[in-house]
Amino acid sequence: MSETPSKVVRSDAEWRTLLTQEQYQVLRQKGTERPFTGALTQNHATGNYHCAACGSLLFQSDAKFDSGCGWPSFTIPADSTAVEEHEDKTFGMRRVEVTCARCGGHLGHVFPDGPGPNGLRYCINSASLQFERAK
Ligand code: FE
After folding, report:
1. How far does the centroid of ligand 1 lie from the alpha carbon of residue 33, in Å?
2. Residue 55 CA, ligand 1 centroid: distance in Å
3. What is the DSSP letter of 118?
4. Which of 31, 89, 119, 128 would give a disulfide with 25, using CB separation of 3.0 to 4.6 Å?
């Protein structure tokens, strides 16, 4: 059990300064990078995936799998308190959006077609993630 991470709250102007344009569009404007273009989709190294906006630990490499969908995919977050899920009805679809619990940044969506014991696929933009290779 870990405690709920303390919140990071910044103004839109601050995020614009702190993030690259691509990170800003995905994390703060809920954009989606084009499939198979993200830097971490094919990353198979051992390590931790942190939020690119606030640094919170979000996912770990042992939960990453090749989904073929074109984005980094995970069966489970690093901790149940690391991410939050929200119903998303945009673009005429019913999806479940995944956000960083600490800063509210948009990460991607979670779908009920994953291979793990909980049957989930966390489909996450590379732009939302910062990979830290295990030492
Ligand atoms: Fe964050």
Report:
1. 17
2. 6
3. T
4. 31
